[in-house]
Amino acid sequence: MAISNHLIERIHHSKQNNIHGFFDKIKTKKWVKDLYETLFLPQKDHSEDQLKKNFETLQNTLFELTHVVTGNQKLAENHTQKFFASLPELYDLLVLDAQSILEFDPAADSLEEVYLAYPGFFATYVFRISHQLWKQEVKILPRVISEYAHSKTGIDIHPGAEIGKSFFIDHGTGIVIGETTIIGNHVKIYQGVTLGALNVSKEKAHQKRHPTIEDDVIIYSGATILGGNTTIGRESIIGGNVWITQDVPANSLVYHKSEIKIKDNTSLPESLTFVI
Ligand SMILES: CC(=O)OC[C@H](N)C(=O)O
Hints:
Blueprint: H1 5-16, H2 25-40, H3 48-70, H4 73-104, H5 111-117, H6 119-135, H7 141-153, E1 156-157, E2 162-163, E3 168-169, E4 176-177, E5 182-183, E6 188-189, E7 194-196, E8 212-213, E9 218-219, E10 224-226, E11 231-232, E12 237-238, E13 243-244, E14 253-254
Parallel strand pairs: 1-4, 2-5, 3-6, 4-7, 5-8, 6-9, 7-10, 8-11, 9-12, 10-13, 12-14
Bound molecules: O-acetylserine.
O-acetylserine (OAS) binds at residues 176, 178-179, 196-197, 200, 209-210.
Protein name: Serine acetyltransferase
Keywords: Acyltransferase, Amino-acid biosynthesis, Transferase
GO molecular function: acyltransferase activity
């Protein structure tokens, strides 16, 4: 069946106005995977010569990707140079993240296991490289990179967030960390945690909308912490499924207590009549 000419015209028109050039998502994902492999995964040939060759290819690809989005050779060279100059520091930070997972997850046996099998570590890796590109103000690339991690792991960390040293994510599925979130050092976060905005009106676009989490805080699964003025004080423990929209002082323990009653099979309270 012939596709309507009107639809073809509309698509053609919309693609003509594309502001990001021919952005290659497949090449971008491959670059993220290849960099991860070079930094952390076992490879048949991990000789220093081979590693140098890998980095040359990775640099050429980042140049190509940034060239497309900037449309400017000099800018693309600068972005590539800056990114790879920051890599030793990013690597050190990522090793600290992995060590923190190994230290605090009783299920983890080795750093190699963390590198091979921890979605939380992969998402943190993607966050740290995308955050570097975000700071360099490379357009669109950091968003596409973080969306790749989201699609693979279910962990959605905006590249604009700030995250300190030794960040620990366990399991991770369903975690959302918004653009203006600030997270201190040694923070631990479990699956389903949202660090989100209290208000999503468009006027808030350039304001702090997401919370601040101070050093050494632990946030257990399903907790929702909202608002740009909300600060969770250092060394607090936030229990599962709590809903927080206000400051929590340092050293707090915030939790829900489930009520347990032995059921009387003859009748249930009305609110529990429909048990799924
Ligand atoms: C994480 C979150 O709050 O998202 C809501 C909206 N996208 C925003 O950035 O404000």
